[in-house]
TrEMBL record:
Keywords, sorted A to Z: Cell inner membrane, Cell membrane, Membrane, Sugar transport, Transmembrane, Transmembrane helix, Transport
Entries under CDD domains matching the protein: TM_PBP1_transp_AraH_like
GO cellular component: plasma membrane
Parts of the chain that traverse the membrane: 29-52, 58-77, 107-127, 134-154, 174-196, 227-248, 254-274, 281-304, 310-326
Lineage: Bacteria, Bacillati, Actinomycetota, Actinomycetes, Streptosporangiales
UniProt keyword Transmembrane, yes or no: yes
Listed name of the protein: Simple sugar transport system permease protein
Annotated GO MF terms: transmembrane transporter activity
Membrane topology (UniProt): Multi-pass membrane protein
Localization, UniProt: Cell membrane
């Protein structure tokens, strides 16, 4: 009996150690495998999917989701959420178009105004969340309604054409054959990945998401971090709005409808826990690619646009279930 007990006791700690060490990467590995599988299937089933032009289009669409997703990842890691992204992007596109035409600010002035206001409305949402403890869902829901309404009111729901400008041509075009918006997305990804992993600010975000009260007792300025988090998402939404306006050639109050859904979907699919305290920029990056490839493939396959939402809804639910299972396994390992 003693011999049998020792024979079976050995592998268990090794197995638990493996899960503890690599469990948090299982979602990212699974996502990468799913993306590879998608490319194989869609490459065979969807005509033109693997063409260079289509892949550049996937990159361009990924940028619209990804730039905002970097900021939203940190917001969700901190235990909050921002659902105002879609209307914020649309309003920013209207601001830059109005500023460059009707308000005579010039291209540079219009872009700067848009970015400053984006930072400002995000900071306001963060201040309301931090100062008065208003749930972030309610705060950003209000912002969602205000910005969306303003964007449509200021334009009568009509596009506002951008003036001819080399700046807008560059922002809406490409550099060395790669869409400018995609390059901006990749640069910002590197910046945010570094901030999250190697800076005191990044560690503060994770600490607040894990336990805000304990983080406050440890001396962290929770209010300042929360304001900065939401200000950052506002700024990133404004950047996305400027790039989208340059790409479309106009500001549009109806643009980016439902973008907040895709952004949050990419973050959740990437493994960020909605309860806060856990998540990675790499996971979100893979989530952005996954969502973009799925959307592109469904279009090329001729799937009904309304049914595309059904497919994406199932993907979100499946991703949440996978995250719960992985989180329970890794948490169980730490407790053991």
């Amino acid at each position: 009996m003693t011999t049998t007990t020792h024979a079976h006791a050995g592998p268990a700690p090794a197995r638990r150690g493996f899960v503890g060490r690599y469990g948090r990467r299982l979602n990212e590995i699974g996502l990468l495998a799913a993306i590879v599988l998608l490319y194989i299937v869609l490459g065979a089933a969807a005509s033109g999917f693997l063409s260079l032009d289509n892949q550049l289009g996937v990159l361009r669409n990924a940028a619209t989701i990804g730039i905002a997703a970097w900021g939203v990842t940190l917001v969700i890691v901190s235990g909050d959420i921002d659902i105002s992204i879609g209307p914020a992007v649309a309003f920013a596109s209207v601001l830059v178009a109005k500023g460059a035409t009707e308000w005579n600010l010039g291209v540079a002035g219009a872009v700067v105004l848009t970015l400053v206001l984006g930072f400002g409305w995000g900071a306001l949402a963060g201040w309301l969340r931090a100062r008065f403890n208003v749930p972030s869902f309610i705060t950003t829901l209000g912002l969602w309604s205000v910005l969306g309404g303003l964007a449509l009111y200021m334009t009568d729901a009509l596009p506002v054409p951008l003036p001819q400008s080399p700046v807008f041509d560059f922002l809406g075009g490409s550099f060395l054959g790669i869409p400018t918006s995609a390059l901006v997305m990749l640069v910002l990804f590197a910046v945010f990945a570094y901030l999250a992993r190697y800076t005191a600010y990044g560690r503060s975000v994770y600490a607040i998401g894990g336990n805000a009260a304990a983080a406050r007792l440890a001396g962290l300025n929770v209010t300042r971090v929360r304001v900065l988090l939401f200000a950052t998402t506002g700024l990133l939404a404004a950047i996305t709005g400027v790039l989208l306006a340059a790409r479309l050639g106009s500001g549009n109050g109806g643009a980016a409808a439902g973008l907040e859904f895709d952004v949050i979907a990419a973050v959740v699919i990437g493994g960020t826990a909605l309860a806060g305290g856990r998540g990675s920029l790499l996971g979100t990056f893979l989530g952005v690619v996954f969502i973009s490839v799925i959307a592109n493939g469904l279009v090329l396959l001729g799937v009904n646009p309304f049914f595309q939402d059904v497919v994406r809804g199932f993907i979100i639910v499946a991703a949440v279930l996978v995250n719960v299972v992985i989180n329970r396994r890794t948490t169980g390992d730490r407790i053991a």
